## 1
Amino acid sequence: MCLVFLCVTLLFLCSGCLRTKGPQFIMPAQDLRMEVPADSSPVLIFNGVNNLLYPATGDILVQVDGSVLPTLGRNEYAQVVLAPGTNELVLGHWDLVRFTDTYTFEVETPMVYVRVRSRPQSTEFEKLKVSLDYIEERYTPVRVPDDWGADG
């Protein structure tokens, strides 16, 4: 009984640890076919965690250039608009312990697709060449809270 109480207490305390620190990224409309300024590129980040290999892990925390995106649940995507160039990507997930990894990635035009997923000891990303149809068939837009961006 004490072990169950200890586990529940640790999960409760660590649930607050899952939040990535930083200002919230101002999220554009999650319309995959939206027009973007000529000097920018849409970047589609999607959670491609393998449901069979990682049934207990799902949510992935994403931070781009110091700004936090809404947490990506299983099979969710977030679309952001960035200027071409090098950007910092911080990813995290919780699976008994918290894993946080920092990467850099290049943004090019016209569109960048980034799959993020949890691994046994890390959270990784991979740039892919896929189509909008592929994304629309398999993924849903991230749930952006009503008060998102109100803190920054």
## 2
Amino acid sequence: MKILFLIRYLPKFTYHATAIRALLQRGHEVVLLEDRDKGEGLPHGAFDACSREFPNLKSVALLKRADVYRNALFGLRELISYGSYLSRSDQSRYYAQRWRSYLPIWARLFADSPAGLKGLKNPRFMRALRFLERKTPNDRAIVEKVKEINPDL
């Protein structure tokens, strides 16, 4: 089975190495889709060692959205993630604050407002945000790239 695995960038490979190695050992082909801009110049020895051991492991550059939806969708997804941290009763405040720091400025201003904070804790509001995310058209270039890779999963 050919598995497409999205990874932030190759230096973070060690965070996922156990799961990826298990897939590779079972004979699956794993294609890592990674942001080469983020990891440029950083060492990625763990990935290099694993790819020497398993020829069925490959890395492909991530395509980023290049359309009018890119910035809004990025902020929307970060708001959805931040809201999920706010709604977890067993979650340390540290993780919510850390995720807040990932928000673009417009999303942070919204999240810091009383109405925004109330909305992000409201399941109905969060469903509306996820609905907007789902209704955003796919980027054609990214769809073509995934078709080119042709993963089973």
## 3
Amino acid sequence: MTRRAGFPGAGSARVGALVRAVRENPALVRVAAGAVALVVAAVVAVVVTRPDPPGAVALPDPPVVGTYAPAPDLPPATTTPDVPPPPGAVPATPTTTPAPRPTGADRVPSPVALPRTPPGSTPVGTPPPSTTDPTTPKDPTAKESAKWAYARVEPATTPLGVETDLGAEGQWGTPQPITVTRQDVGVYRLRVPGHASDTSVAHTTATADRARPVGCVVRENRPVGSDQVVVVACHDDGTPLDTRFTLVLADPGEDVVVLRPDAPVRRLGPGLYEADLGTSSGVGHAQVTPYGPDLVRCRSGGVTGSVLRVRCTADARWAATYVEGVAPEVPVGAYAQTTGSAPDLRIDPARSHHGPGGAFALHRLGPGRSRVLVEGVDPSGAAALSGATATGSCHTAGFPEPAPTGLWVDVQCVDDAGRAADLHFGIAVYRRPVDPAERLDPPRPPDPGPAQPG
């Protein structure tokens, strides 16, 4: 026997009556349809909001692989007309479709397995735990410190090609020791861990106890992996020289004006340049370092207004760092410049700066040789850069040494002919940041006394 779909065993009389009712009362059909829709909506609401049956367990999140991305949109659902089941069919058990899992930013990621780390060590790249309350708003006036490091490089005659760790006392600012490899006579390759940067500037000063026109140039300054590699070449008036030296590597800070080797400058003549510093009164300190393959020397020719003059022994690229009224990179760093007439040179307070509890004094030790005392700066591991500020050439004759309440540094100057001469110079002292428990002694500058004959 053949049955019509949707009407199992219905008599023809009832069908006819229903058809006539539909034709004669179309409004009744619309009312009935609306009622059916309300019933369906109520059923759906009950199904969606009904609690999970006892013992139901949420499915676990899928494993996380790689990075997250929003799940693709699903195709639109299709609706199949309700068809009454055939006689004798078992009614289907209603099921609840689980709500779609969150995707994208709403998803809570599952843990990702990390490589095992030996006990007692810290995984590489793991940031230290934050001590800042995330609910505390950041001070918009707070200044972030620039990344910087320094190293006193000695001894000067390590075996060629052998990478050597520098002593902990003469370096600061790196997670691992700075290393040096002597590549040739007077040529040193330094690796500064954790300081990879395309914007850092390297400065260097030869440290030699001799009244000769010695100097150092930066031949290379570039990132290699997470480290910065700096190649320094030192010389005595153009002849390669194995010598101690000081390196300072720093990214530009907020209060520091930096002229990189590729900065636009004006060439005024052979080895003579000038460049704009921007806002400046001309009373700050400029550190100048030559860059490139040639063994040249460069020095500051003075600052007039906001214009810096630089003089080199030959055409060369160079970098300059200028500070005015602030410490060079460090809160307790200091810089000083001289004034007066040779041989009676003095520290010019208007063109010098020191940190809390600081003061300066200057002693003349002989022709072209001066001792600068820097009070209130801890001598442990300090570094110094020096250079002439008018004519000739100046360099540090030794590393900073401890004084009763600070440190002292000897500076040696020679004129353009290479003879010892009393010249105006500048010096910058760098040290590690102050420890919270550290006490800075009050300034007690000694009387420099009369100039020594010579």
